[in-house]
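Researcher: I'm preparing a figure for a lab meeting and need a structural model of a single chain. I don't have an experimental structure, so a prediction will have to do for now. The sequence is pasted below. Please return the structure as tokens so I can convert it later.
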Amino acid sequence: FAEHDHVEGQMDASRRMLMRDVFDLPDLAAMDDGIANGTYEPRPGDPQPLALFTAPRMDYSLHRLRHYTGTGPEHFQNFVLFTNYQFYIDEFVRMGHAAMADPHSEYVAFVEPGNVITRRVGLPAEARDALGAAPPRLPQMPAYHLVRADNAGITMVNIGVGPANAKNITDHIAVLRPHAWIMVGHCAGLRNSQQLGDYVLAHGYVREDHVLDEELPLWVPIPALAEIQMALEQAVADVTQVQGAALKSIMRTGTVASTDNRNWELLPNNQPQRRFSQSRAVALDMESATIAANGFRFRVPYGTLLCVSDKPLHGEIKLPGMANHFYRERVDQHLRIGIRAIELLRAQGINQLHSRKLRSFAEVAFQ
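Model: Understood. Here is the structure written out token by token.
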């Protein structure tokens, strides 16, 4: 069927059952991640894998991307920003439409859920533009795409809250082989010296998210990647105009802990607090370690720059008035830092970006 033909939507249950007699259905035995995980061992005489993913696994993920993000996989760009707050998406949409109104913008289109395409002013519409329509409700993890002609633009996805979502979406975006993905979101500051609105650049992760424990054991270290770290630090300096030693007054480099328990501070005997202290963690969220670990697993360069939105250990919680003021103050700046980091990474070239730290002993031919 053509891309936009969805005949199954008009069938009753009995007729849908008959489709399996005519069409291939997903074969779960052919789409595990053993190659990427390093657990796949071909039998003597079997061919060696050429890529990290089998064709059925890729096909499955392309369909999942349509479902979860509301946009076709062909619109995804080679640099991806993840966030856990809709405020960032609202600002990204504003920036996207502003870029389309600029005839000199490097971006040629802006794509929103439902494959709604806005072309840069002065560019002609294409036939597929008419097929887009805003959905009656947003998908689970809506994606937005600032498109460049060379596909080196920016995709931004609101993954919502929690490590399950973070693993889910990165499992599927990984088949597109992006050049990098970066988490820009909010976190709890764990140190009294931090202020609301300070930035945290992760150089290590405490993985208490548990969603990747089977695929990537906890004894596997998730290293910081120098290329991403340097780009993020430079981006903070460029956007805030704070340089040198003064940069430490607004950005702290340290370990980020990610947990799957949103109410960790309510657990008895302060056990999580003790572990976070032992790990020297400076910030806590629910997604960053998952995104970094899946980037490591799938050989996608990764990074994390978070913004402190509360300090639960020090009595500074998210009260409505404080939160509203904080969001107005910081979201625009934080997003511009993320975009600036991508510009710096793009200028480096992909040969510099794909780190040897992500390669195993026996890598596949095609990354």
